[in-house]
Amino acid sequence: MFVSLYELWLGQNNDPIYADEIFTPVGLITLLFSLGLVALFYLILGRWKSVFYRTSHWVITLIIAGIFGYGYAVWYALDATGMEDTDSYMQGFGGVNLLYALIYFFVFSLLLKRFSIFAKRTPF
Question: DSSP H helical segments within 11-87, as ranges?
């Protein structure tokens, strides 16, 4: 599933390590991290105090998800390929993973915000 999602935007790479060993673990960890961050925002912080319900807090959490998505993808690809420096495909992979992290965060926000006490209307 993740291979086709990444290759939709990036195209196939000549190095099969991306399809075989990089796309699936990075996609799964990004999905789970976004879910965990949304659960933290709505189910823990959004039920704890009436402090973490503002749209600015949601945007900060969204930015954290995006930074993680980009950084984790580039770090994992560097580690798996054994390269010392990034190339354009790796940077593009990080950018696409950032995009997917933001999408996952937004979709999970729509699903979990109803379970919050104070952040039911965050971000809209």
Answer: 17, 23-39, 46-48, 55-81
If you ran DSSP here, which 8-state letter would residue 16 be given?
T
Asked if residue 27 lies in contact with residue 19, where contact means CB atoms within 8 angstroms, the answer is no
Say if residues 33 and 66 touch (Cβ distance below 8 Å). Answer: no
Tokens at residue 70, please?
A: 């980009």
Which of 8-12, 20-24, 36-40, 101-105 shows the lowest mean pLDDT across its residues?
8-12
Return the closest-CA partner of residue 6 out of 86, 107, 76, 92: 92
Tokens 């971000």 sit at which residue? 123
The tokens of 51 are what? 């402090």
Taking CA atoms, 100 is separated from 35, 62, 75, 76, 82, in Å, by 12, 12, 16, 16, 24
pTM check: above 0.85? yes
Q: What is the CA radius of gyration of the chain?
A: 16
